[in-house]
Each structure stands twice: as structure tokens, then as C-alpha cells.
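In this section we walk through a basic example: taking a raw amino acid sequence and producing a predicted 3D structure, encoded as C-alpha cells. The instruction is simple. Fold the sequence below.
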Amino acid sequence: MIKYKLIGSTNENIIDCVLENRGLTRSQVNEILEPSIEEYDGMLFRNMKIGIDMLHKAIENNINIGIVVDTDCDGYCSSSMIQEFITKDLSYPNVKLLFHEEHVKSHGIDEEIYNKIIDLNIQLVITPDAGSTNTDYEYMSELNSEYKTKFLILDHHGVEYDNTLEDLVLINYNHTDCNYPNKFLSGAAVTYKFIQTYAKLHNINIGSKYVDIAALSLVSDMMNLRDSIENRVILNNGSLKVNITSPLMQQFIVSKEKKKKRISI
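The resulting C-alpha cell sequence is shown next.
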């Protein structure tokens, strides 16, 4: 004979009973599974307004902008997102993508990227999903000293240096002085927050554009979806077919014949 001990009330609904035993209600669980809260304000990022002004001024002055492409899925998501935003939504064509071609697994600013910045006369370098290491800083310091190059960092990795350069704007929630509450964003999600905030400040309607790519990066970089409601908001919105605008993601849906309204992880 199986012995058992009744825990909690005698609620006939098994789900409510289990939740009650764990101190939860259905509304609390629904908030986790289907969050509806507003995403955090991008202006909570340290240096967000300064970075937006830097990009806006670069476009006004018609300078050469280079985007460093980090060689993984999060890096591709980040760089393609900011490149499309600048060239299409801001209608500014003077942008070059800086690829790592000599060493496939290179990250951030290395000697190859350093030389490309000089050769292409890049005056503003944007490094999404990279740019927070001491090696990056050494190259950036030299470029700034010799060529007056400016830098905009949109990253989520650990920050290894104390920035003393006026022409280097670091937007990274891992900086000790950054109070942004979500510490689980991917590099592309940080870039997405930058784009969202830029568009809002300059009254540019991007709708749900780019949320699909931000969602993809959260999955590919295995970012925490349990402890971050905002990450779940991005994932839930970005996996809805109606919000998918990326040609790559649209082709994926076609090739896999996905018939449901949402793409699963």
C-alpha cells in the first residue's frame, strides 16, 4: 500500500493545489510565462544619451562610420541590426562593415580591424557585442591619439579597463557605474535597447522591427530567461510571426513550414 501525506488544502484543482503548496498563484505564474510589463527604459543605461548624441552628430557631420562584426551569432545579430538601422531607418549610407577575415574566431578590435579602420579612414567605430577588453582599449587609445577616431561600444561582456578617453562612449551594463537593472542581456539585446532609445528620442517609428533578431541572440548566446522578465518580453515578442521582419528569419519559417503563430526556442 502506498502511503502519502496531504500537503496544503483539499483544492480539487491539481494545478492550483501544486501552486498553493509552493506559495504561488496563477497570476504570478502567468506573469513569468507571458510577461506583459513594460521593458526597462533604455535611458537607465550609463552613457546612453551620450552615445545617441555621438551617433547623431556623426551622421550630421557626414563622417565615415565603421561597424566591427564579432564572429558569432550574437555578433552577427548585433552588427546587422545597427547597420540596417543606420542605413535604412536613418537613411545614412556612409557605413562600412569591418569583418574579421584573417582569423575566424577573432573578437573586437585586433590588428586586422585596426588596419582597416586606418585604411578606410573610419572616424566613428561602433563595436556591438565587443570592445570591453584591455586589448580593445589599447588599440582604441592609439587610434584616438593618432587619428582622432571616436568609439561607441554596445556590449555585455565584462569591462576590463577604466576609460579615460572623451571620444570613447561605453554602453555596457557590466560597468560598475551602470544601474541598468537587467544584467542578462545579450550583445544584440543591448544594441536593440540603443536602437529603441535612439528612435524614441528622435521620433522614428520602428514598430517591432529588430525584436526578432534580439530574441534570436538571447537564445544563441544562452542568456538567462528565468531571472529576467525583460528577456522573456523580448523573446515572447520576437518569436511571434507577426513581429518577424528579418529576411533570414522569414526564410527560416518558410523552409521549416512553421504553421504556428510563434517560433519555439
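Looking at the output, two observations stand out. The longest helix spans residues 73-89. The chain has ten helices and five strands. In the next section we compare this with other chains.
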